[in-house]
Amino acid sequence: MSSNFYFHKWKDTLRDLEELVEKDVFYQESKVHDQKLPQAVHRSSSFLGQYIMMYNQMIECCQQNLQVQKTAWLDSILNAVILRIIELKKHLEKLEGSRFQFLGYGLIEVHHTVYDIGMTKIPKRLTRPAHIQAKLEDIFAAVKEKRMMAQIEEEAAETAETEKPVEWWDAEANGETTSNKESSKKDNIPEALQMTRKYVALIMAHEKTRQVITWDKHRKLTREMWEKDLMGELKPKARPEIRKRSANLIHTVFRVYFKLKRERIERCKRDELLGLNLCDAPIFGVQQEQAEVMLKNRSKLYEKHEKKHLEHRNKLKDEYMKNKKAVVCEELRDQIREWFIEWFESVQFFYDIPKEGSVAIFKGEIPDPLDWLKENTALALKKEADKKKSPQDLKFQKLEAKKLAMLQKREEQMNMKAEALLLKKMMKNPTMHPGYTYPPSKYTGDIVKAIDYYHKSWDKFDVYETMDVKEKHVDKINLNDAIMQVQLEVLPEVDEEMRQELRKLKQALKNDYKTNEEEMPVNLTKRPKRKRVKKAPKSKFDDKVVDMIENLIEQGFILEYPKQKLEDFIGDPNFGGEDLRAQTLPASPFHFEIRQYWWERCRDVSCGFRRMLLVGPDCSGRTNLIYALASVNDAVLFELDPYNVQGALESAQFLKRLVKMVVTCARALQPSVIRIKHVEKLFYSKIPPEEAEMNLKIIRSYFVTKLFKTINKADNITVIATCTEPWLATASALLKQFPEVLLLPNSGYSLVVQVLKEWVYRNKVIPADLNVSNLARALQGYSFGYLQDALDKFMSADRIVKIATYGLSPMEVYDYFLEDTTQTTVEYDKYLSWYNEKTAQGIKEVKYLEDQREFNAAFEKYVTKKQKKKKAKSAPSSATPSFTGL
To answer: If you count DSSP H runs as helices and E runs as strands, how many of each does the chain have, helices first?
Structure first.
């Protein structure tokens, strides 16, 4: 789409966001109160859904934006909205006792559906340097080339051995002939591959035969017509009236045919909208691919505009530095001198220029003269009073002040605990329940400030709607940026000159105080120390690191994964989740809610060191989620598998070197994702006999404990452990290392329907009206990955020919699954029981539901008791006679 479209879309989105924030702030200030929990949840979920829709529209505008200077303002508003979304999610987590939110009813109130709030894109924060990315691609290409060359050499060696001439005496001595060798080589080919080749050859032979027969028939008929025409035996053409009547009949038949076809298409569209049936298979994924290509083209165009913008700004800066340097220096000196005059006229004193320079003066970080005088006088009086005290008294005074501060802090904590305990008791008591108040927010103010700052900065440009406001850059803003950069560059030189002037002024002031026989004030105040942010150690990307990366790729510890999106983790939302929670029943998330939760984990990759545990059955989609997380952040994927370090590789020396190489390369290539496979084997409560030979203790020591110790908090490295049988591990030790656990959902009916629909879309030979609904009912319970693999294997060459000839029934597909005895439906209750009994999140959810059930039972009891009292009061007493009128 054009830049004009997204220019106006951004203005409309910003207007809608302002209305939403205004309503949000009004609810916070008026302290809107809800008596029941579902009402409070619906209100908060409604706001959360609206903020998510605003986020989706804003991030689309940000990604399609071609105005380079506008990006910083758009990002500031977008980041403020993200913080508000996360805050609302945490509030709903407190209300419902679960990390997963079901927003159905809250969205219905604002006339939207759950599909409008799918969060699949994250704002890019961290990018790998271009030279490192290019070097990484070269390393992958070199390793691929090495593997291909090695494979070609192996095949050439095998061919040379098989094609080596064998003399008759050698053949007789060995009891083997060349034909036997060829037959033995043929026997080494798998049977499935042989059958596939056979069916492919059969299909090719059929097609070639059909073409030859068609061509031969056409040639024969043409020759017969030509001979009859020459001999005069060809029948004459029909009369014109007969041909006209035949044409009218053909027109009538075709009109009826196309009318029936249009009705069938309308009926199919209606059935697809109602979800009853599938008719014509659309071209799957074409629109998404086109959108991705357009987005890539826009990003390339943005990079081109950004490069021109930087060149133009640097050119302006150089010209301004050359022509106006002296003027800029003099203006800065005048501003600092005015600051000197302000201090002298106010308090007859000169404050020192800070170490960081006069930037602190212009930012307003220096205290006001009158405030400084008040604080300095108090400190001077305190210092005079302390002179009369002994060192022991001063020490005792400091200890007493420290004790008093600790007592006050402890008292505040006890009061907070008492208030929390009282509130908890009140929430359980139906007669004292306070209800639910819409909570104040920390981040709506940030959204308002970001929007106001945008209006102050860009409204004067947006009103004209010129092309430079929609694309490329505005020259006036570049000029202001160039002036600011020139001022920052000349400021150290100006500071040094002004410090010399300040020394002279201080000396003159000291002489004046001495002449007037007065004591010059001393600055006793101290500026608050700035918090030093711990920076992660800079990783060197040298030849040594390049060799490490190449070595890890060759050994399989760095993977070249397929690029995936969050949408590839297909699945519907749990539409009954809200109703189940309203009835205080456990509600499990489906794939849609997992995607919403995983969006936060994708965003956290660029926020420092993170670690989590993915639990689920085999082929439940764990690998898809990890690939999506790495793809969205363009991260490098490392994989540590205990089965890859068996035998001689289990030594402490090799594992220490391996972990060091992994952390060094992950830090050099960050953002990075480290996957630890089969993590339950490293925490076995009882080692099975078949794995007793593996030294799992030492592997656990290096793959988990020492790996985490060598990663810094500021490193953009995410560690994801995966396991399929968590009950085999010691839960306390496993969850201590991975406190955050995500249990993947079971494959239910809606998921199997989507898998089958996608399978029908991909294979056009399958009838579009295949009864997917009934087949999904029968196949629910099989794991997600197994369903996809089994359906792909079902489409063999033989079956493709049969389907094209005879069609396909759901029973044939179901029989194919029944014949496969290697796989059965997943025992998902086992995973749920482990999650609810062992993990902190599961225990919290179970306890919350129990508390809600107890409260509902107490409330019903209270209402019943109250109704009985009302009936007893309203019933006439048997002791008093009834009065009848005359």
So the answer is: 31, 10
**Contacts for 176 with CB less than 8 Å, ≥ 6 apart:** 166
Residue 34 tokens read as: 């809800």
Q: How many domains does the chain have?
A: 6
426 assigned to some structural domain: no
The two structure tokens encoding residue 160: 């040379």
Structure tokens at 233: 């035996």
Cα–Cα dist 349/366, whole Å: 14
Q: 648 to each of 265, 651, 652, 655, 695, how far by Cα in Å?
A: 66, 6, 10, 11, 11
Round to whole Å and give the CA distance between 612 and 737.
Answer: 9
Residue 765 lies in a domain: yes
Burial-class residue 124 by CB neighbours within 10 Å (0-12, 13-18, 19+): middle
Q: How far apart are CA 308 and CA 87, in angstroms?
A: 39
Looking at the fold, whether 811 and 768 belong to one and the same domain comes out as yes
Q: How far is the CA of 43 from the CAs of 23, 27, 787, in angstroms?
A: 12, 10, 39
**Nearest-CA neighbor of 701 among 712, 713, 709?**
709
CA distances 795 to 32, 280, 283, 473, 824, Å, are 59, 20, 19, 55, 20
Average pLDDT, whole number, for the chain? Answer: 82
644 plus 712 within the same structural domain: yes
Residue with tokens 């190449």: 550
Tens-digit pLDDT profile for residues 593-624? 899 899 988 888 888 888 999 998 888 888 88
522 located within any domain: no
Hey, is 556 helix, strand or coil? coil
Query: Would you say residue 701 has pLDDT above 80?
Result: yes
CA distance 655 to 700: 10
Q: How confident is the model over 741-782, as pLDDT tens digits?
A: 999 988 888 888 888 888 888 887 888 788 888 888 888 888
530, part of any domain: no
Strands 558-559 and 636-640: antiparallel
Domain around 248: 244-281
